[in-house]
Design goal:
This protein is mainly β. It has one helix at 41-46; strands at 7-12, 18-24, 35-37, 54-59, 62-71. The protein has a five-stranded mixed β-sheet with strand order 3-2-1-5-4. The protein starts with 6 loop residues before the first strand and ends with a strand.
């Protein structure tokens, strides 16, 4: 289950690209370094999810849909 400190691999629905993120606090967030705040739309959408779950979150570009490939 995704929580603070979890490393997560996700893919956007309809894409083959994989992205790795670590869930961190706001002061540690560095999107270019793969560290996402649990307060961010992506980070909060990931919390409580597990491998295989699909989820969506809202951004200025619209709703983004992803699938969790791995949780460590």
């Amino acid at each position: 289950v995704v929580g603070m400190g979890s490393s997560v691999q996700v893919t956007k629905i309809g894409s083959t690209d994989k992205h790795n993120y670590t869930i961190v606090g706001a002061e540690e967030a560095d999107i270019l370094g793969g560290k996402v705040s649990y307060h961010s739309p992506l980070g909060s959408a990931l919390l409580g999810k597990k491998k295989g779950d699909e989820f969506s979150f809202h951004t200025p570009k619209g709703t983004q849909k992803y699938k969790i490939l791995k949780v460590e």
